[in-house]
Design goal:
This protein is α+β, with helices and mostly antiparallel strands and 208 residues long. The chain has a domain of 66 residues: Nucleotide Exchange Factor Grpe, Chain A, domain 2 (Roll), CATH 2.30.22. Helices cover 58% and strands 17% of the residues. It contains three helices and six strands. The strands form two sheets. It has a three-stranded antiparallel beta sheet with strand order 1-4-5. A three-stranded mixed beta sheet has the order 2-6-3, with no helix packed on it. A hairpin with a 2-residue loop joins strand 4 and strand 5. The longest helix has 90 residues. Its main location: cytoplasm. This is Protein GrpE. It comes from Streptomyces roseicoloratus.
Length: 208
């Protein structure tokens, strides 16, 4: 007959390698260690995706910048073409009015620009000037074949270069665009006059 020791109770066996809490902590640590390689692979994949996103963003940014530059160039071309078309249209209209302006100029020269006709003529000239029409061509200015059309030619002793001596029809321009050259009579120095002038100058120098 066995004797039981009073005051002691039997306890369940505990694994030799530690308490249940320690065992559970060890298993969690083992799981974490086993999951570490998978976490590294995920980070690599995320970095690769980030690089791809950055590359795509740079490409899209470049495309947007090129598109903006093309749009700005397009706007400038449209504005330039619009101005050119407007100038051509205005020049065409004013070209049709030049004969009327010539008649007004001749009437003014002959003292016939009077009364209501004078008021209408001046109003027409004012409107033409507002549209950019400018008259040019004056007696005594050097002949320029780009803006003058010589209709008469002569020689004169008092000119040292080809000179406009009479304005037969004034020229007209809009900005830098010439819509009609000035029609003029020109005079050139008389043949030999330049040589005589040079000889005279030399003689005066020698006498001094």
């Amino acid at each position: 007959m066995s004797e039981e020791t009073p005051g002691f109770e039997e306890k369940p066996d505990v694994p030799a390698d530690g308490t249940p809490e320690e065992t559970e902590a060890a298993e969690s640590a083992a799981k974490a260690e086993g999951a570490a390689p998978a976490g590294d692979a995920t980070d690599v994949a995320l970095l690769a995706q980030l690089d791809q996103a950055r590359t795509a963003l740079n490409e899209r940014t470049g495309d947007l910048q090129r598109l903006q530059a093309e749009y700005q160039n397009y706007r400038r071309r449209v504005e330039r073409d619009r101005v050119t078309v407007k100038e051509i249209a205005v020049a065409g209209l004013l070209s049709e009015l030049l004969p009327v302006l010539d008649d007004i100029g001749r009437a003014r020269e002959h003292g016939e620009l009077v009364g209501g006709f004078k008021s209408v003529a001046e109003s027409l000239e004012t409107v033409a000037a507002k549209m950019g029409l400018q008259q040019f061509g004056k007696e005594g200015e050097p002949f320029d074949p780009t803006i003058h059309e010589a209709l008469m030619h002569s020689y004169a002793p008092d000119v040292t270069e080809t000179t406009c001596v009479a304005i037969l029809q004034p020229g007209y321009r809009i900005g830098d665009r010439t819509i009609r050259p000035a029609r003029v009579a020109v005079a050139e120095p008389q043949p030999g006059a330049q040589g005589k002038a040079e000889e005279s100058d030399d003689s005066e120098k020698d006498s001094e």
